Amino acid sequence: MRRIFIAIAIALSPFWVPQLVWAAGFFKVGEKAPAFALTSVTGDAVALENLKGKVIVLGLFHICDPCMVQGSNLQKVHEALTGKNVAVVGVNSSGNSKRDVGEFLSAFPVKVTYPYLLDPNKVTDKIYGGGKFIPNVYVIDQQGVIRWQRVGNMELAGAEQIIQEVEKLLSSAPAAGAM
User: Fold this and answer.
1) Number of domains in the chain
2) Residue 23 lies in a domain
3) Which of 17, 23, 53, 89 has the most CB atoms within 10 Å of its CB?
4) What is the per-residue pLDDT for 28?
């Protein structure tokens, strides 16, 4: 049985390589985070530009099990970093309805209290390169530059790992009045 699995994996590997190369084109570490403005499931307007000055943890999700796991991890990040200069934001980037997203969120093992945005036109899916590679998590610095990311569900980002990346940015921020 193991030999069959290995043979299948080897046979399929040529199909994975082009997709991974294609996904690499969306990796934007070191680039300015593309701006967007959306509405949350609770009706609040949220614009990425308005969060500048904070470290932003941005999660792009569809309605799927890996997205539920990653979204739950972001809730842990949100709780751990409450009171710090950090904004955690989730986006349903696949254009699902408010009702469907609400039902999805109600199935989470934790209550999501960070802003969870609706993207009916799939703008974030296009500008951040989502689509087949979901969930996506980006850590964006105080100047709006992407400093860390995980794209796709091959390696989900744990809360501890995300917190560590955020803490690096918080500790490297200039002290107030030092500019």
Assistant:
1) 1
2) no
3) 89
4) 78
